[in-house]
Amino acid sequence: MRNTQATKLVFELSKPGRHGTRLPESDVPERPLDELLPPAAVADDPPPLPELAEPDVVRHYTNLSTLNMSVDTHCYPLGSCTMKYNAKRNERMASLPGMANLHPYQASATIQGMLQLLFDLQRMLAEIAGLPAVSLQPAAGAHGELTALMVAAAYFRELGQRRTKVLTPDSAHGTNPASARMAGFDSVTIKSNTQGLVDMEDLKHKLDQEVGVFMITNPNTLGIFDDQVGEIAELVHKQGGLIYLDGANMNAIMGITRPGDFGADMMHFNPHKTFSGPHGGGGPGAGPICVAERLGPYLPTPVVVRQGERYLLAQPSPHSIGRVRSFFGNVGVLVRAYCYIRTHGPDGLRRVSENAVLNANYLLSRVKHILPVPQGDRCMHEFVASAASLKKDKGVPAMDLAKRLIDFGFHPPTVYFPLTVQEAMMIEPTETESKETLDAFAEALFRVTEETPELLHESPHTTVISRPDEVRAARQPILKWSPPD
Amino acid sequence: MPYSFITHEDRQAMLSAIGAASLEELFAPIPDELRIQGPLDLPPALCELELEQHMHQLAAKNAPAGEKVCFLGGGSYDHFVPAVVDAIASRGEFYTSYTPYQPEVSQGNLQVMFEYQTLICQLTGMDVSNASLYEGGSAAAEAVLMSMSTTGRPNKVVTSASVHPEYRQIIETYFEQLNSELVTVPAPDGTVSIEQLAATVDDDTACVLLQHPNFFGCLEDVAAAAEIAHHHNAVLVVSCDPISLGLLKRPGDLGADVVVAEGQPLGTPMQYGGPYLGILACRERFVRRMPGRIAGQTVDRRGRRCWVLTLQTREQHIRRERATSNICTNQGLFALRAATYLATVGPQGLRQTAELCLRKANYAADAITADRRFSRAQHQPFFKEFVIRDAKGQVEALLDEATNSGFLAGIPLAPWYPELEDCFLVAVTEKRTKEEIDALANCLASVSVEAPVAVTQ
Which of A394, A464, B116, B208 could be bridged to B339 by S-S, CB 3.0 to 4.6 A? Predict the structure, then answer.
């Protein structure tokens, strides 16, 4: 039933002379082109783009869309990514003309509603974080990390302190050490202990006055709340360092504990995860950051402030690190986050976390009879199962299980992350799945583990393609379509 | 609680399966002393209808393009977006999916990425494109960092005052951490001084960053800049307006080594500044140092053509602190919009769009400067934007007055360019009609005659 004609490459569907759009004739007095532009600047022909009729375009991309799994169509328990339901109402609200058609350089008097929304969002994020100063500017979580580390660097420069190191646990997202490097720090890895928590001995050994920031994900990428965090913060603060919280896992703790309350000085939110901004096939996200009072002056410019009844853009202080992004930020994502927070209110956000943790623990209680979960019987919003013994006994790696789950109608969990668990399968059901769906997932996983290695190696069997040759893609890169010779 | 399936009975059954007496027990790992006491201080929950009423109230306090006639540019433009683009981008299979880690269930997204990369190469004249970055400004910063690592010249980058001031500010912010120097060559009549550029670029220079058409709308001499950069084995990075490429020679054909752009004009609404997409394309030799996601073609186990994320050894999830960048996403939804837009307008539609912008902008410049109070501040050829000088030097009051008359008339340049404090930037897209342009010109002229210019804050 699949339409293989329409899903050829758009370039292969092109035919000279077709066009998908028609624009009005020019209504201003005609002048020769060479009066308006130097002939040397003008191309003889327009770029060699494909030529299609509008129905071609619609059929092509509609058919391509059906080759994706998505939250709207499937359970998507991709650990660490919080693939929860994206409410349709938020899409409608973000596309109101009074929101979507605002130009970033409009005078503040013409965007008071937008500035009020952003100002209120700053305050709401500050409350959820327990950290009072907010920048909505960063464009993604990784961008928030980088921005906060630059804020930290500016703060230490101001204090006249030379701090060259950023510490990250070995279970951290790869963005943490990469951001540290981009912000001019050396990244130092801290080991995890056997329970998957920060190894305190290793931390104490590596902690000194050259350490600027300790970056922690809490709950961590194993789905465990590191209850040593208070002690860690105390140790780091004693040496004059700062604690950064990677907010990727805020879905587990909203309304229960706040990063500012457990010692964090800076953090980012992932509104596309926690506050259900749709993931868009890889983006957009956003990465607003919240910081302690003393770091507020260093935040990027601009922030939204209120003067009496009016809202304005302002520089946080002369100490601001400057800009990290053009214009204000990923406002469309922030508008959806605002709608999400307003829809839930304080009790609703707490309920989100409770249900996310309930769902994850329930699924854990079923999965642990199928695959070992090395870090124990309880988790927060996600957990990491290991296929290591299955690989040893039957030669079935985690990837085979992941691929075969697709045939049962489930998006696979995150595999091979975190790096601290062998044959890791990181499972995050989110609060927007039903008990029936979680039961079906556990059942599918059980059936998969019972199947023959041969069947699994060749899976998935129901998709349009199976097991692409990734080595070939990297060794002989073909990164664009070329016309046939 | 909205969007939840969990009934009371479900909860009891699930807790019992877990072996927990209560929900509270699941949160036992969080020590009491770290807990928040009482509820978060947030406004109460709104149901869907209440939310909608509230959002309509907020939206009513804004004056969007459409309600006002928009002549604002500076990197974000009120271009026409065909309905096809919205229809495709609002398919849940696209916008509620994520990064294609599992290619078997992401061929739709991967093929879109591959098509997008090809379209961007066709548009810019480059060999390779990534699958997009955050927006134009950080794309320019990433291109600069890529040039520094490729050339092994970490100390110096040369740019022009005619490059978007916010793009330069972003680079300054990044450079603060790296102890590198961004040297800005003046643009005395709206374009970079080629003599001063030649005198500034040296063998320590990693790259030259230009914008064409530049922030003022003027055309730069890209070929001359390429010659200067290449003479010193420096990289030429050109930031461009993708719509202009319907008409202008492609940066790749003028000697650019890396092309970046704000992708918003290709089918993305203005949304008060984002999310947009950053375009970054380059010559083949940079590919292993490129930041961001890249899709590549391969075959599956049965030999069928398909697409995967590739060259991932550049990326943070593999290389951690040794990655080419910390970026771990692309702006997939906006790459999709750009691809749909370009496929819909095609080469002729893009050419026509560019020509309409050019003709209408030139007409608008003439219409506005028909009043002697106004003149063009620069005298170079321009594409769809130009700088107007107000002889009375009362830009803010003038623009406020125009707003009251229904026009978002221009962007004051004073915050970025003290020497242009009596100037504002006007942009004209294909959407503006002659009638609207005439009305704007009349409005500005009437302010100059009638309104006693109030000193506003």
Answer: B116
Q: What are the residues whose beta carbons fall under 8 Å from the beta carbon of A244, sequence distance 6 or more?
A: A145, A148, A149, A152, A213, A214, A215, A216, A264, A265, A266, A267
Helix (H, G, I), strand (E, B) or coil at B128: strand
- B84 → closest Cβ in A20, A117, A431: A20
Partner residue opposite B273 with nearest CB, options A57, A253, A329: A329
Question: What ipTM does this complex have?
Answer: 0.97
Kindly determine whether residue A57 and residue B44, on different chains, have CB atoms separated by under 8 Å. Answer: no
Å from B424 to nearest chain A CA? 12
- Number of neighbours of residue B44 by Cβ within 10 angstroms: 11
**Choices 3.90.1150.10, 3.30.300.10, 3.30.70.20, 3.30.450.20: CATH for A346-471:** 3.90.1150.10
Residue type, A205: H
* CB pair distance less than 8 Å for A93 and B55: yes
pLDDT 10s digits, A95-126 = 999 999 999 999 999 999 999 999 999 999 99
Domain that holds residue B392: 69-79+346-449
Task: Give a yes or no: residue B24 inside a domain.
Answer: no
The rounded distance, in Å, linking the Cα atoms of A66 and B109 is: 10
| CATH code for the domain of B376 | 3.90.1150.10
Nearest to B270 among A42, A103, A414 (CB): A103
Distance from the Cα of residue A48 to its chain's centroid: 35
Question: Does residue B366 share a domain with residue B312?
Answer: no
Contact with chain A for residue B388, Cβ under 8 A? no
Chain A closest CA to B195's CA: distance in Å?
20
Return the domain boundaries, chain A.
1-67, 90-344, 346-471
Residues 6+ apart with CB under 8 A from A153: A183, A184, A185, A212, B176, B177
pLDDT per residue as tens digits for the range B160-182? 999 999 999 999 999 998 889 99
Task: State the DSSP code for B129.
Answer: E
Distance of CA B371 to the CA centre of its chain: 34
Distance CA B454, CA B297 (A): 62
How many CB atoms within 10 Å of residue B259?
30
Which chain B residue lies closest to A156 (C-alpha atoms)? Answer: B177
- The shortest C-alpha distance from B325 to chain A (Å) reads 7
Count chain A–chain B contacts defined by CB atoms under 8 A. Answer: 691
- DSSP character string of B46-64: --HHHHHHHHHHHHHTB--
The tokens describing A257, both together, are 């504990």
Provide the whole-model pTM.
0.97
Long-range contacts at B12-17 (CB < 8 A, ≥ 24 apart): B13/A435, B14/A358, B14/A359, B14/A361, B14/A362, B14/A435, B15/A358, B17/A362, B17/A365, B17/A366
CB contact under 8 A, B36 and A255: yes
Q: Which stretch of DSSP H or E encloses residue A462?
A: none
| Residue B248 falls inside a structural domain | yes
In this prediction, residue B447 has a pLDDT band, given cuts at 50, 70 and 90, of: confident
Distance CA A219, CA A351 (A): 17
pLDDT at B236 over 90: yes
Residue B266 lies in a domain: yes
Q: Which residue is it, tokens 């009016």?
A: A310
Q: According to CATH, what is the number of the domain A90-344?
A: 3.40.640.10
**Which one, of B237, B246, B321, lies nearest residue B283 by Cα?**
B237
Distance between CA atoms of residues A401 and A410, nearest Å: 11
Is B307 in CB contact (< 8 Å) with chain A? yes
The rounded distance, in Å, linking the Cα atoms of B99 and B112 is 12
CB contact under 8 A, B173 and A62: no
**Distance between CA A124 and CA A130 in Å, rounded?**
10
| Contact of A16 with A45, CB cutoff 8 Å | no
Contacts of A308 in chain B (CB under 8 A): none
